[in-house]
Amino acid sequence: MNTNFQLGTCNAVQHLNRRSLMKGLLTTAGGLAVANWGALTHSQTIAAEAKRTGKRCIMLYMEGGVSQIDTFDMKPGRPTAGEFRPVQTKVPGIQVCEFLPNIARHADRLGIIRSMRTKTPDHGPGGYYMHTGYHPSERFPHPEAGAMIAKYCENPESDLPSFVKIGSGSGIYGAGYLGPQYEPLVVADDGKLPGFANPSVSPEIQGRRGELLSFMEQRFAESRSGDPFAAHRSAELRAIRLMRARQTFDVSAEWEKAKDRYGDSKFGRGCFTALKLVEAGVSFVEVSHGGHDTHMDNFPISKALYSIMDPAWGSLLEDLTQRGLLQDTLVVWTSEFGRTPAINNRGGRDHFGRAWTVVLAGGGIKGGQYYGSSDRDGFEVAENPVGEADYMATIYKIMGVDHRAKHFLGARPIWATPEDSKPIMELIR
Amino acid sequence: MINSAGEQNVPVDRIAIGLFVAAMCLGPTLVCAQDGSLRNSIDREVRAAWEKEKLTPPPRSTDAVFLRRVNLDLVGMIPSYEEATTFLNDSDPQKREKLIDKLLADPRHARQQAQVWDLAMLGRKNKLVDGTVGYRNRGRFRVWLAKQFVANEPLDRIAAKILQAEEEGSQLFFAAHRDPDEMVNAVSRFFLATQIQCAKCHDHPYESWTQKDYHGLSGFFVRTMAVDVPGKPEITNQTGNLYLVGEKMVGEALFSLEEIDAKTKKKKTVPIKPKFLSGEELAEPEPPQDYVEPKLKAGELPPKPAFSRREKFIEWMIAKDNPFFAKAVANRVWAQFMGRGFVHPVDDFNSSNDPSLPELLKAIETELVAHKFDVKWLVREIVNSETYQASDLGAVADALPRFYERARIRPLTIEELTSSLHIAMGLGVEAALKTEPNQQMMQYLGEPTDGQGRFQGSLSEHLYLHNGEGFRAMCRPNKGNLPEKLVLGAEDWNEKVERMFLSVLSRPATSEERERFVQYLSVDAKDPKQTAQRMEDALWVLVSGSEFRFNR
């Protein structure tokens, strides 16, 4: 891991790499669709610069705040228990809600953190915290986990973008100080690409136009080594590569067969698309599922939500296992916070950050265990509290990203996760 | 005066004037304000830095590069075909200086300055008021700013008026930063180039700022309030409101001490007297005994107070001996044209952020004060310098070379892109001024930086360039635009390509380019549909490439 990547100051090696990269761009004659811009795709320097772990991450984000007490931290017999009943899984001691039969089958793969103690019960800052590990900053935006993982885990030779958000319901926090190179490509809730990813002209016109553009860019670049020009050209190339690889997002043929297992829903299709994307080498995919903000009628609404969430999540783990991808793919199930143990007078549960649950699977975590616990009625953490920063550090650690990687904003250092953050080593193999 | 053609003579002139200026500067009265002297000081100091740093001096920019650069910088759009050919064919050795004067007198210059200030003060995606700053509302602020620049109001006066927030349209900066903390941060960053926000919660870890300094500054703004009142729709925000800014008679900035109050068992909270950044406390009359603020209805402002803390802050800020303001604006104006400030970023003067050329910063600051904050004078001096007019070629990859050893590279703003696209397609200045950037341009090309001002192209930007209608539609032959004229015109292909390059890139095509484009355009010359398609392609290529995307 390159722990000393300095964003604010470029060292000589980076300049050298950029320069040789430019050179590669200029001198390689092309037989590729985009003339000699293809040289960039196979640039030795880029490949050498990347420190890849080969790991990927899928984040299932339950937008609005999913209830911990009705899912993985049930309190049978207590006044806060609510209507749902727990069911014993094949792992002794692990119980999950009766309405989560699909994910229950994977209990031996799950690392269930029941002791999240987070700083805010507001959607806005909560979403920021749970995506970045940091408090929202006036002075600069922090990158969300997807951008950080894209930066350190991306495969530079892939035509696909390294960070994809399926649905934007959980918010777009973006690449922050890591820069637009790591901004997410945001696609629809069901994983379909926006219209403008489709070429607006025929491949023939696109190809000949691309050659003319390439001709102009090369002449221009010959005497101008400016970084912004190089950034402009490499973004152009990424766009062309995405257009070329856009079929990966088109899962319609296989979806016909998969939809019975995933559930014929947007979220189901989103999860299936995420599977196809990580299989194709995308480093980070977030799939959001909205509507978990159940201030009223928590039980009927949650039951309906779980009937969409559970088959998609369960089948995703199933397919990742089947394809041998699970060991390198971390699947995170999370929210901006949990929901109150107390049930309000509208039959709802409200925002709650004092003791709630997130669930990890795959990527090299030790499954079949709980980490931490809440007290008898679920109002406070009883043991091993986990804050947002520790949660983020755990994700980074699993992904092989140094959670204390240091970046620079001008002269000011900034770390991937805040000071004192610690990954939960008990969860990691 | 620098004679732009008589370059051989320049060094001699420069040395002579330089010595004269240096001699004058040594005198106790410090008169450096001779017209034409600052541009020479700039070149002398920068040249000395190149020597000291062992940097190869850059060549002078070509006429075409200079023409495009100065048009974008001074009037916010590229030159038209006619303007380009007139300038490039002009053999007058003074033509650069003449062009600068012409552009500075153009009303578009004030508009461009207003846009630069507006964006620097309020950002592009600031949450601002009512969740958004509606374009209309923002437009009012820009119009007000442009009025100031048209009248060449001195910079200290413009700054004062923004903080007074009394003139129609001037209130947005205050309306946007209503919270006293936001006000402290915004004012100190923009006008004082000092970042004190860390000291809100703890004494600054690296600088001398204490929490008392921070809350002391807050004392000047804690009484300020902004209200929304109904206004005419054409000049209001999206909820139909106008902003008015006033000041209460009483109210204090409160600060929680570490000491615990024996009674409440909480941290002691005490009022903090207003305190200037220079460390002095404000001397103010005792507030009227038993004064009770009148109860205000919604949208009502209190009567103007007899003693205005905000006025006192403004007086301090723009006073001749203020150690922050003149330095901050001198550095900011320099950075606007040179890409980076002597201190960079421009709003962060601090003990670990040394200026690249401290003497030159001092000289510009001193002369700007001597010229009574005449911003047009300062801009004229900067863009007439050889330093500004340096070539864009060279080995330096950094977009903003620290010692200005090559011209800076900056992406065009979306306003500049929109206007320039209109000019490039021969639609004229009026159309260029009338058209606002569309929502997609805002979204995909609006802020192409890494959060520290450095350009990074985004995937979405290029998807938009390829597949969005915005650029493509402009390049398609249509209603008297350039592509249509070229398709229908009787000239030969060589002439058409020449016109195309001059219109879009403000330079003639090279012979290699001419050949390639002629070949591209004329391959299906008998098929009108194909010709139109190829014309669109060729123009699309010219506006999609780096050469159009950047000002360099």
TrEMBL record, chain A:
This is DUF1501 domain-containing protein. It comes from Anatilimnocola aggregata. Gene3D superfamilies: Alkaline Phosphatase, subunit A. InterPro entries: Alkaline_phosphatase_core_sf, DUF1501, TAT_signal.
From TrEMBL, chain B:
Coiled coil: none annotated. It comes from the Bacteria. InterPro entries: DUF1549, DUF1553. Residues 309-429 form the DUF1553 domain. This is DUF1549 domain-containing protein. Residues 278-297 are annotated as: Disordered. Pfam families: PSCyt2, PSD1. Residues 42-224 form the DUF1549 domain. It comes from Anatilimnocola aggregata.
